[in-house]
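Problem 12. The chain below contains 99 residues. Write out its predicted structure in token notation.
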Amino acid sequence: MRNRAALMCAALLLLPAGAAAQASGYSAVPIAMPAKANVMTRATLWKCAGDTCTTPQSDERDAVLCQLAAREMGILTAFTARGAPFDADALARCNARAR
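Solution.
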């Protein structure tokens, strides 16, 4: 019983760290995946796998980073900045810069 309680406490301590790590990065979902697994936008390196491209951090403002991603990757169906998905209006403004 003691071990079980200790394991549950340890698991609870790990949850916020995982959520914080996920909420700190960016993700973009282009309509068509880029031909290369890595995409560079200014000084931000994106890694693409499956249907999503991700980057752990960027010095760009969220809206600018989305526009740069759309310019390099094409129209995006979704963009998430630090755990917060862009709404339809923000995504439309972003996609106005798509190639």
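Discussion. The chain has one domain: 24-95. Students who got a different answer should revisit the alignment rule from Section 12.3.
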